[in-house]
Structure to design on (1037 residues):
């Protein structure tokens, strides 16, 4: 959908003759040119061209206790052209920058996979490809984002769309009015770019947001029209929610004041999804400010639900070594470290020795989760923070 | 019983024990005969101060029968000596003196003649010309094995002059089945014998090639049984310095020998005896020996009892006597070793080392080592299809694998296994029974398998400039090479075996008396002193090789580094050009020059990181004992400045 918008705008601009960049594009173009100019300057002074990329590692993020989300530190990684192990990455960084410049010039947007194909070619005189796989290109794109301090959409890029929404809200997406309570069984696909220029909220009757982990669970809630009964929005992020979904949740929470409740699997992965929604991710720490929802609550599933809901033994999935390791890692995150309920929760899962998926509640009754489990939790305000 | 007891002549003994002299099989007999004749010729020329030139001809006269002729440009031999030299075993000038020479016992050539007579019934034929003014003289010599006594059979025991008129001379020579290359003086030996001619390892061809390495002053013209001419030209016009003859060193004398010497030297004082009979004994040293033996310096040698000889013997061992003079040995020298090796073995790196002389059992000796690394493909890769078929047909190896390792230089069992694997042959194929198609397959495999890795070090052994071709396993030289740790010099080596890699090693032992394990002079006995010196020399060339290999590795890495940068510069310039429309080519060239500076900087950093490396490098450059051949243009440069990695070239 975002694509459509851009195209429309591009078409409109083309109508005016030359492509006229927006003010935001002009700023990005300036940053890109600055990057290129530094290469020329270095070459003229016979210096080693390099870029200093803010480092996106655990060691360079810190938990801001006051703001309650992850912030990126000031550490940078120097990437040099004349360093054997960095030469190729440096070349790729410049390629990505030139690709973005081309997109902005032509007033078009593309997916990150599209950019990969745009830039992929055989290096002259060799059999080597500029990018062997998309997985080589994606981190470079993130590097360019942090390097230029630009958002992905400012570089005219978007990721694959993932995650849906349904509920009592009406919004304007690229000029089209969308009533999310009339989306049928499929829901409204949350676009990759949900910035205010693209999406504006028109009317909202919902009182809170229920975010579930997966599409399958989301379908259950939608079919039972849970959102109508409880006046809420229902979202899912197909596992780890992509930026579009996180940004949407953040905006809904921030601008409309809707509380966010998460219904996730009872396993380290589920805990981590919650952690990312609440505090931001290490990799995208530079965007925490726009994405983290420190007030998000963890509704379930809880380690004690196996006994509390009297589930049968057959729904247990045994923890493996990776799970145990991951759980201990999560327990030691600074934002969980001092929360006794969370420490207890994780300890209990480890003591159980098994994990539970949300779908396991179906073993009680098909609609147990929508008719009993979630309403009861909300009623009792029984959640983790 | 008593009747059956009688004298055994030396000749009879060797007829029965011909393997002791190197005549165990027809193939070896051919080589030994040529070897003895060539050794004698070279010794004769050098003693007379003539730069040696040899003509060697091997000719097949019947199946399993060959006639070999070896002629030199030496001084010729006078008539009275001819029968003794060529017909009597254990007769010679070299046995009783201590001086470095190729032959030492006086067995070789007469044994060869005897072998020829036994197997073909033909006498040894000698043509000798002692002066340009006198006609060449022709002798036929036979040996009476019962009494070890030779006699000349032609011209009523006098031999015959070859007529001086050209036509008459030609018909005379033809009639007697001999040849003569016109020369002012010289000797030609012709022996016909039962033999087998085979190429490959331990062949006549290899022997002559190796002789050329160790004797860079010698010219050899070789006509092989197939009529191919080979010429080994000298790389120096200078004769090696003539080795001096020395008296035995006291440390080398044994008790029985001492008794005999005392008996021979009657009526002089002990002090004088010691001074006259031994080298390095001054009046002072003689006095100290006598003191240690509690004998008077003035005691008469005739009246010394057995017990006193014992005491004297012990006293000699206890007294400090300086090492024997070493001018009795003439080394080849590092420069000539390199030249000789370079002439015969194509490679990219050469190094040589000559050890200072040392002493074993009172005999001075000296070790020289030269090494050649890389570049050369083995003979296996150069062999033609026809040649291979011939080689297979004439091989007596039982299995194909054995054939490969025996025929080709530098082919280890690993390499052979690789080739057989590629060709898809089993281990037990008989070489002679291959079909034409199988030979094609084998030939193809030989060409295509890279056996550089599986290649084993080639060891050329020399004793007094004579190549040793047989019994490598029993030889102290091979054993020492195997026991040296080559891993630290950049070669791979499994425990207790020769290192692998494209390496040719040459070890020369020069001594007044080379301790062979047997009369056939095939292997050197293991004296600890000799082994220690060999090891030190090996380590010395090994260090140079290691340095070279490390530097080559470094240069290669640097080249790769540079290539990586070059590969991406064009892309970076393109990208930057797209973003800010800077001049693409200008930026590219600027980046290129930065790359040049960067990699050059990296060069120096690598060099100076350890001071040791820099010093070593300097050594390697300035060292005259190292020869590095630039493989790109095949130019030789003795300063050894190999090209520094891939040159920076511009794109397109």
């Amino acid at each position: 959908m975002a694509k459509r918008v851009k195209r429309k705008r591009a078409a409109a601009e083309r109508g005016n003759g030359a492509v006229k960049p927006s003010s935001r594009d002009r700023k990005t173009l300036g940053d890109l040119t600055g990057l290129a100019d530094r290469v020329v300057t270095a070459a003229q002074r016979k210096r080693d061209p390099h870029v200093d990329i803010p480092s996106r590692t655990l060691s360079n993020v810190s938990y801001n206790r006051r703001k309650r989300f992850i912030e990126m530190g000031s550490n940078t990684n120097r990437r040099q052209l004349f360093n054997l192990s960095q030469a190729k990455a440096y070349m790729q960084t410049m390629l990505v920058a030139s690709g973005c410049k081309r997109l902005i010039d032509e007033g078009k947007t593309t997916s990150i996979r599209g950019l990969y194909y745009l830039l992929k070619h055989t290096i002259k005189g060799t059999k080597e490809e500029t990018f062997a796989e998309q997985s080589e290109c994606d981190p470079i794109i993130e590097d360019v984002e942090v390097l230029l301090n630009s958002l992905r959409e400012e570089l005219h890029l978007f990721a694959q769309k993932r995650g849906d929404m349904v509920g009592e809200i009406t919004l304007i997406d690229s000029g089209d009015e969308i009533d999310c309570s009339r989306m049928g069984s499929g829901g409204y696909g949350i676009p990759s770019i949900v910035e205010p220029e693209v999406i504006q909220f028109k009317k909202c009757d919902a009182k809170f947001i229920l975010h579930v982990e997966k599409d399958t669970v989301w379908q259950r809630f939608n079919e039972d029209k849970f959102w109508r009964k409880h006046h809420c929005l229902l979202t899912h992020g197909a596992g780890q929610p992509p930026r579009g979904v996180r940004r949407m949740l953040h905006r809904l929470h921030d601008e409309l004041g809707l509380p966010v409740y998460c219904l996730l699997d009872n396993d380290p992965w589920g805990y981590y999804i919650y952690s990312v929604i609440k505090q931001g991710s290490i990799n995208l720490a530079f965007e925490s400010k726009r994405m983290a929802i420190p007030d998000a609550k963890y509704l379930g599933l809880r380690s004690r639900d196996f006994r509390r809901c009297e589930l049968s033994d057959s729904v247990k999935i045994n923890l493996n070594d990776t799970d145990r390791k991951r759980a201990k890692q999560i327990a030691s995150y600074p934002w969980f470290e001092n929360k006794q309920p969370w420490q207890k929760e994780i300890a209990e899962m480890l003591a159980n020795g098994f994990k539970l998926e949300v779908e396991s509640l179906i073993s009680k009754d098909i609609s147990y989760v929508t008719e009993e489990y979630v309403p009861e939790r909300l009623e009792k305000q029984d959640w983790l923070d | 019983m008593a009747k059956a007891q009688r004298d055994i002549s030396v000749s009879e003994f060797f007829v029965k024990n011909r393997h002791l002299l190197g005549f165990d099989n027809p193939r070896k007999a051919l080589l030994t005969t040529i070897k003895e004749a060539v050794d004698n010729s070279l010794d004769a020329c050098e003693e007379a101060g003539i730069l040696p030139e040899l003509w060697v001809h091997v000719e097949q006269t019947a199946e399993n029968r060959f006639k070999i002729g070896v002629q030199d440009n030496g001084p010729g031999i006078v008539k009275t000596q001819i029968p003794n030299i060529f017909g009597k075993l254990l007769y010679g000038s070299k046995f009783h003196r201590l001086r470095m020479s190729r032959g030492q016992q006086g067995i070789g050539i007469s044994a060869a003649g005897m072998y020829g007579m036994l197997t073909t019934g033909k006498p040894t034929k000698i043509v000798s010309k002692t002066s340009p003014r006198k006609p060449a003289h022709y002798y036929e010599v036979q040996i009476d094995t019962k009494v070890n006594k030779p006699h000349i059979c032609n011209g009523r025991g006098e031999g015959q002059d070859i007529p001086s008129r050209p036509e008459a001379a030609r018909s005379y020579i033809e009639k007697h089945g001999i040849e003569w290359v016109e020369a002012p003086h010289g000797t030609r030996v012709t022996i016909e014998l039962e033999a087998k001619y085979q190429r490959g390892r331990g062949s006549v061809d290899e022997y002559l090639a190796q002789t050329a390495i160790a004797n860079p002053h010698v010219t050899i013209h070789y006509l092989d049984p197939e009529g191919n001419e080979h010429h080994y030209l000298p790389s120096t016009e200078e004769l090696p310095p003539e080795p001096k003859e020395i008296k035995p060193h006291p440390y080398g004398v044994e008790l029985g020998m001492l008794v005999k010497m005392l008996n021979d030297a009657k009526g002089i004082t002990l002090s004088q005896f010691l001074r006259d009979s031994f080298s390095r004994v001054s009046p002072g040293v003689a006095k100290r020996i006598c003191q240690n033996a509690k004998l008077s310096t003035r005691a008469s040698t005739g009246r010394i009892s057995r017990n006193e000889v014992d005491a004297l013997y012990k006293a000699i061992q206890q007294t400090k006597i300086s090492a024997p003079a070493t001018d009795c040995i003439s080394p080849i020298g590092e420069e000539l070793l390199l030249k000789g090796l370079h002439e015969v073995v194509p490679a990219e790196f050469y190094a040589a080392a000559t050890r200072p002389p040392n002493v074993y059992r009172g005999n001075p000796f000296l070790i020289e080592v030269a090494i050649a690394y890389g570049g050369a493909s083995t003979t296996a890769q150069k062999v033609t299809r026809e040649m291979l078929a011939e080689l297979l047909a004439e091989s007596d190896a039982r299995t194909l694998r054995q054939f490969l390792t025996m025929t080709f230089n530098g082919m280890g069992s690993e390499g052979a296994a690789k080739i057989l694997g590629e060709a898809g042959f089993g281990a037990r194929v008989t070489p002679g029974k291959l079909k034409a198609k199988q030979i094609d397959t084998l030939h193809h495999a030989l060409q295509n398998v890279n056996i550089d890795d599986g290649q084993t070090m080639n060891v050329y052994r020399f004793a007094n400039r004579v190549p040793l071709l047989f019994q490598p396993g029993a030889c102290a030289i091979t054993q020492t090479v195997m026991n040296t740790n080559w891993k630290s010099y950049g070669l791979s080596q499994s425990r207790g075996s020769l290192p692998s890699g494209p390496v040719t090693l040459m070890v020369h032992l020069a001594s007044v008396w080379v301790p062979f394990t047997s009369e056939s002079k095939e292997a050197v006995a293991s004296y600890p002193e000799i082994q220690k010196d060999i090891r030190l020399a090996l380590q010395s060339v090994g260090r140079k090789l290691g340095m070279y290999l490390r530097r080559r590795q470094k240069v290669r890495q640097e080249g790769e580094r540079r290539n990586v940068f070059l590969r991406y510069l064009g892309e970076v310039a393109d990208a930057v050009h797209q973003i800010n429309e800077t001049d693409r080519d200008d930026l590219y060239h600027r980046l290129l020059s930065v790359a040049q500076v960067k990699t050059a900087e990296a060069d120096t950093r690598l060099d100076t990181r350890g001071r040791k490396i820099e010093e070593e490098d300097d050594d390697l450059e300035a060292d005259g004992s190292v020869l590095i051949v630039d493989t790109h243009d095949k130019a030789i440069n003795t300063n050894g400045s190999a090209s520094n990695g891939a040159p920076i070239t511009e794109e397109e």
About this structure: Confidence is low (pLDDT under 50) at residues 1-18 of chain A.
